[in-house]
């Protein structure tokens, strides 16, 4: 059973997450405001960030860096800057 939410990232109604994907209050906010589609966009960026910056998810500092980028991307409207990556022309 899918749920529809107003996705603050896409600025429209969209299919919400099936369950909370991230812990704590931030996770609740993502669950309530970020659609599956927007989360997929973030997951692609996250993979590029982890690879480029060689982040280790066991390292709390690296997780903080990633969380900050996630908040900027999902809620602040800031794209992730990846060295040497040029987005394809739309």
TrEMBL record:
SUPFAM superfamilies found in the cross-reference section: YggX-like
InterPro entries linked: Fe_traffick_prot_YggX, Fe_traffick_prot_YggX_sf
GO biological process, one term: cellular response to oxidative stress
One Pfam family in the UniProt entry: Iron_traffic
A molecular-function term among this protein's GO annotations: iron ion binding
Keywords: Iron
Free-text function comment from the UniProt entry: Could be a mediator in iron transactions between iron acquisition and iron-requiring processes, such as synthesis and/or repair of Fe-S clusters in biosynthetic enzymes. Necessary to maintain high levels of aconitase under oxidative stress.
UniProt similarity note: Belongs to the Fe(2+)-trafficking protein family.
Xref: PANTHER family: FE(2+)-TRAFFICKING PROTEIN-RELATED
Name of the protein in question: Probable Fe(2+)-trafficking protein
Organism: Pantoea deleyi
Origin organism lineage: Bacteria, Pseudomonadati, Pseudomonadota, Gammaproteobacteria, Enterobacterales
